[in-house]
Amino acid sequence: MTVTRAAVKVVRLGRISYRSALKVQQQHIKQHLDSSSCSPNTLLLCEHEPVYTVGIRRAPHPPEEEQRLKALGADFFRTNRGGLITFHGPGHLVCYPVLNLACFKKSVRWYVCELERTVIKMCIQFGIEASTSLDTGVWVGDNKICAIGIHCERYITSHGLALNCNTDMSWFDNIVPCGIVGKGVTSLSRELGRDVPTEEAVPKLLEAFTEQFNCTLIYN
Predict the structure, then answer these.
(1) Average pLDDT over every residue of 51-70
(2) Element counts in the chain: helices (H) and strands (E)
(3) Which residues are annotated as a binding site for substrate?
(4) 14-198-139 Cα angle (round to 5)
(5) Which residues are annotated as a binding site?
(6) Its pTM surpasses 0.85
(7) Which of 9-13, 41-45, 56-60, 117-121 shows the lowest per-residue confidence on average (mean pLDDT)?
(8) Closest to 174 (Cα-Cα) out of 105, 102, 76
(9) Which of 39, 41, 48, 42 shows the shortest CA–CA distance to 17?
(10) Could you give the CA distance from residue 198 to residue 75 in angstroms, rounded to a whole number?
(11) Could you list the active site residues?
(12) Which structural domains are found in the chain, ordered by start?
């Protein structure tokens, strides 16, 4: 029996504000919720202007804390994704899969695990040994290289993963990334000892995503 591979459209948004990318996600989510079919599944790729985002497992962030972070030159958003506070900015490859899990497997746990395995597989292509831990995301030792935080409504996914490529890591010094005390963050550039821009990581991430999700990518 031939198994039909799901089609996933790749959309490159370039460098975009978090607010604008959120609107694009919401448009694609609405298309899914208004349709009974398995399409269009979409993979939104972008970099953000500096922004701190907080997920639904939020620790208290009083107005003065929000203002402190904004004073650094970053936006601040409270979101409906899983997880705690993190940072996105230039040099950060952000991937928002807006998928109907009915086209894959109707399991949120499975989906998150596949995202983690996708990033681990991509890291292997760079010669980096990465792994998961009890804390969501992908790690190199005790340092997180990729944060994962998703939302799922009626098996339609949104938000996704953020991979540190050649990010200015000093932005993370202003927060406790993902609320995890005693652990740090790292990047492809830091691990490899050379500059690794997002453009170098994109094809490897897409290749790993294709294999892990057994899908066919469609480019604009």
Answers:
(1) 79
(2) 5, 11
(3) 81-88, 147-149, 160-162
(4) 125
(5) 81-88, 147-149, 160-162
(6) yes
(7) 56-60
(8) 76
(9) 48
(10) 21
(11) 178
(12) 6-219 (3.30.930.10)
